Amino acid sequence: MSISLSKGQRIDLTKSNPGLSKAIIGLGWDTNKYSGGHAFDLDASAFLLHAEGKAKGLEDFIFYNNLVGVNGCVQHTGDNRTGDGDGDDEQIKVDFSKIPAHIHRVGIAVTIHDGANRNQNFGQVSNAFVRLVDEVTNREILRYDLGEDFSVETAVVICELYRDSQGQEWKFQAVGSGFQGGLQALCKNYGLDAQ
């Protein structure tokens, strides 16, 4: 049975689920019936974070223009430009066995493409969620529904996967932290310059 998390909650992933080596991070959302003349294009991304919580370079940023991280440890399955339909709108696959030892966290975020220019924000997005599925067994391990906490934000850090203090096991944290400034602000938060 899947565990439902609230903002800020943490859970043991690999310790509580022995044998979990490959996970699918499924992200989904709906856009409110709002006619601003532009379609919504939400984009999932992942940041490979070093000990100080920052990415070092573009190779640590996995998104629609860089689909595969170092060693293939994190893989974006492709851009969904509409978000139509039920289920996951975008997916990011994580292979824990391939994540290099110097990567301590993986931040998972969603941004609204060109949100500021289109007058779009997460206040116009509903039913946003992240779920983590064991890729081998296809069993959903956990789910975090974001709720309606956002109004003007154009980027949201949804969750982070992180190593325990010994570096042996992986944990999951439901973050739900919003940013104005879209992808640029998000990249700056994680130590990258997204000009």
Quick summary of this structure?
With about 200 residues, the chain is mainly beta. It has one helix spanning about 180-190, and strands spanning about 5, 10, 20-30, 40-50, 60, 75, 90-95, 105-110, 125-135, 140-145, 155-165, 170-180.
Description:
It is a single chain. The chain is mainly beta and 195 residues long. It contains 1 helix and 12 strands, in the order ββββββββββββα. It has one helix spanning 182-189; strands at 3-5, 10-12, 22-31, 42-49, 61-62, 74-76, 90-95, 105-112, 125-134, 140-145, 155-163, 170-179. The longest helix has 8 residues, at 182-189. The termini are far apart.
Which keywords apply here?
195 residues; mainly beta; 6-stranded mixed β-sheet; 6-stranded antiparallel β-sheet; 4% helix
Structural class: mainly beta
**Strand ordering within the main sheet:** 1-10-9-3-7-6
What is the overall pLDDT average?
Answer: 89
Sum up the overall morphology in one term: globular
CA radius of gyration is 16 Å
Number of helices: 1
Helix content: under 10%
- Encode the helix/strand succession as letters: EEEEEEEEEEEEH
Low-confidence stretches: none
Q: In this structure, how is the largest beta sheet organized?
A: 6 strands, mixed
Distance between the termini: 43 Å
Strand content: 35-45%
Total DSSP E strands: 12
